[in-house]
Design a protein that fits this description.
The protein is of the alpha+beta class and 91 residues long. It has a single domain, classed as Translation Initiation Factor IF3 (2-Layer Sandwich). The chain has 2 helices and 4 strands, in the order βαβαββ. A 4-stranded mixed sheet has the order 1-2-4-3, with helices on one face. Helix 1 packs across helix 2.
Length: 91
């Protein structure tokens, strides 16, 4: 699947990401990946649920992948583990 159908969740308000996903679906996308790391994971789940329950009732959760990435920060010697999630929505 092309990476253009991915939405990376960050610190913006939830509705910004909901709008981005809905725009992708209306543009003809059949699948969208919602990706998040760390504290943004709960926001990613909120985005997926708002899309499914409030806006596009024909969208289903296709797959959910969870994992861990090692991130090297500049002010620490040892790498830090950060949780990741990838939610695939299918229309």
């Amino acid at each position: 699947m092309p990476e253009s159908n991915s939405v990376l969740i960050g610190r913006k308000p939830v509705m910004n990401y909901v709008l981005a996903c809905i725009t992708l679906f209306h543009g003809g996308a059949k699948e969208i990946n919602i990706k998040a790391r760390g504290r943004a994971i709960s926001r990613a789940v909120d985005v997926a649920e708002i899309i499914r329950r409030k806006f596009l009732s024909d969208v289903k959760v296709g797959n959910i992948d969870i994992g861990t990435e090692q991130v090297q920060s500049s002010n620490r010697n040892a790498p830090t583990n950060v949780s990741t999630i990838e939610i695939t929505l299918v229309r």
